Amino acid sequence: MSAYTFYPGCAMESNAKAYYTSLMAVAKPLGINLEEIEDWNCCGATEYVGMNLIPAYSLIARNLALAAKMGNKTVLSPCSACYLNLAKADHYMTERPALGEKVNEALAAGGLHYQPGSLDIRHLLDVLINDIGLDNLKAKVVRPLKGLRVAPYMGCMVPRPDYNNRWSDAEHPVELVEVLQAIGAEVVDFPGAATCCGGHMTQIGPETAFELIRRLISSAERSQADIMVTVCPMCQVNVDAYQGETNRHFGTNYQMPIVFFTQLVGLALGFPPDKLGFGTEITSTEKALARIGVDIPKPTEDTPHKQAGLPMPSCLRKNAKGKVQHAEKEAA
Amino acid sequence: MPTMTDEQVRAHLTHEEDLSLLHEVSMKTAGVSRLEMCIQCGSCGGSCPSGMDMDHTPRMVFAMLRAGMRDEVLQSNTPWVCVSCYHCVVRCPQNVHITDVMYTLKAMAIREKKYRDVAAPEFAETFVEMVEKYGRSYEFGLATRHYLKHAPLRMVGMAAMGLGMLRKGRMSMKPRTIKGMDQLTAILNKAKEMELT
Ligand code: SF4
Ligand code: SF4
Questions:
Q1: Which of A97, A231, A261, A240 is closest to A154 using CA atoms?
Q2: What is the tens place of the pLDDT at every residue in B71-124?
Q3: Chain A residues touching residue B192 (CB < 8 angstroms)
Q4: Which residue, of B87, B111, B135, is where some domain finishes?
Q5: How far is residue A312's CA from residue A153's CA, in Å, rounded to a whole number?
C-alpha cells in the first residue's frame, strides 16, 4: 500500500462524481491509500488568480498548509486544474520569496503556515504509472478491454507547464496511452490528445469553447475512436455536457462519449459499470461499451436529445460571420 | 523628397522610452514573469488555440506593454479569451510566464474597471464570491446567477442538460460549506490587504 494525502477538489463531489466513485473503487486493489485533507477548500480554479493574486494564492496555500499537517509529503490530486494550482502555488512561492512571505502572512491570520517546497504535488496518473507501475496494473487486469477503440485525452494542465519535469512530453505525452494499453484497450492515434477543451469559456465565451470542443471531437471521430478518455473533470464536462450545444452551434451530430480513465481501469479490473459511475454521462456510453460486451446501467430518465436547444447568444462580441472567420483563420 | 536633419528627427521623437507599465505588470505577476525578456518571436500567438478570437495576440500585447499603451492593453479582450492551455508557455524560447501575465492583466483590468465585456469579469467575481462564502465552489448557484444575468436565452437551451446534471447527481442545488470558514475568511481578509508589486 502506498499512502497519499488526498486533495479531491470540488468537482469530485459534484460534476465529476463518476471520477470519485471509480477512483475509490480501484484504489484498494491497486494499493493506493488515500487520506483526505481535513477540511480542504476550493483551489480557486482559473478564476481567483485572474482577480486578486495574494488572496488567490492564500486560498490555495491554506490547502497546502493543511496537507503538510497530515504528515505525508506526497499530495495526490485527481483533478488537472487543482493539481496545477497546488503545484503552481508551491512553485511560485519558492521562486518568488516575496510571494511566499505575503501568503504566509495571510495564512498566519488563520493560525497556519506553509514552508514552500515541502510537499510533492502529484497527479493521480503520475502516481498510477510511477508508483503503482504498469506491470502491477497489467497483472490485475481480469477483463482486457480488447476491441475498444479509445482516444487518450490528456488535456492541458497535466503535461503543461510541468514545473517538476514529471511528464514525458509537454505536447505529446504518452502516459495515458500506456495506461490504456496496459488494460488492453486499442489506443487510437489522437492528434487532439493534449489540446484544450475550452476551460471556463463554455460559460463566458461559448463560441471560443465550442470551436475547441468541435476540434477535439472531430479529431477523435477521424481516428474512429469509440470513446474518449480523460484525466480531468473540466475536460469531461466540456466534451460531455456541452457536446449538445456544440452540435447545435455547428449543425453537427457528434455522439462521442467521454469517461474518466479510472472508469475504464475499473472495468478492466472486473468491477461492474454501476460501481464505476457509468450512466452519469450526458453523452451516452452505451454503444461504445457494447463493443466490449458491457451493459451500462439504464438511465432512469431520458437523456437529452442532441439537437435540443435554443439559439445561443454569445457572451463575447457578437460575430455575424463567425464560422467563415474561423475557417479562414484555421486554414491560414 | 523632403529631408530632415538629425535634430529635426530627434524633435519628432515624441515617445521617450518608458518601461514602467512593462515593469509594473511583471512585478505584479506570480513567480518571476520574465516578461521583459520577450523577443517578439510570435511563437505564442502562433500556438494559441483561441488566438482567432483575440483582439491582440499575446506577442502584440507584450509589445503594447513595452510601448506603455495601458488603456489599449487593459481594454483588450485577449486575457479574457485566454483558455490557460499553456501551449505558448512551453514553446516560448524566452520562458516568459505568458499565462500568468494574462491573469495579471485580468486583475488589473478589473481593478481599473477597464474591461469592455462584463460577462467574463462578472463570472470570475461570482465564482470568487461563492468560494469566499462557502469555501467550496458552488456550481448551481454560479451557473444560475451567471446565465440569468448574461445569457438568459442560452439558459433555456441548456435546461435539458442542466436537468440531466441535476438528476444524475452531478450538480447539487445546495452548496457545501467548509468547517473552517472563519479561518478562511481571516486569511483572505488579511491577504486582501497585500499586493505583489
Ligand atoms: S513566444 Fe515568448 S518570446 Fe516569443 S513573442 Fe511570445 S512571449 Fe515573446
Ligand atoms: S495559455 Fe492563453 S495565451 Fe497561451 S496559448 Fe493558451 S490560450 Fe493562448
A1: A231
A2: 999 999 999 999 999 999 999 999 999 999 999 999 999 999 999 988 888 888
A3: 52, 54-55
A4: B111
A5: 27
**What CATH number should be reported for the domain holding residue B26?**
1.10.1060.10
Q: Which residues of A touch B80 (CB under 8 A)?
A: 204-205, 316
Q: Do B50 and A14 touch (CB under 8 A)?
A: no
Q: In what order do the strands lie in the sheet with A74-77?
A: A32-36, A2-6, A74-77, A120-123
* Ligand 2 atom nearest B85 alpha carbon: 6
d(CA A225, CA A237): 19
pLDDT of amino acid B163: 83
Domain that holds residue B22: 13-111
Please say which residue of B111, B146, B161 terminates a domain.
B111
Residue type, A105: E
For A14-39, the DSSP string reads: TTTHHHHHHHHHHHHHHTEEEEEPTT
Residue written as grid cell 512530453: A169
What is the rounded CA–CA span in Å between residue A325 and residue B32?
A: 36
ipTM: 0.91
- Residue B18 sits in the same domain as residue B89: yes
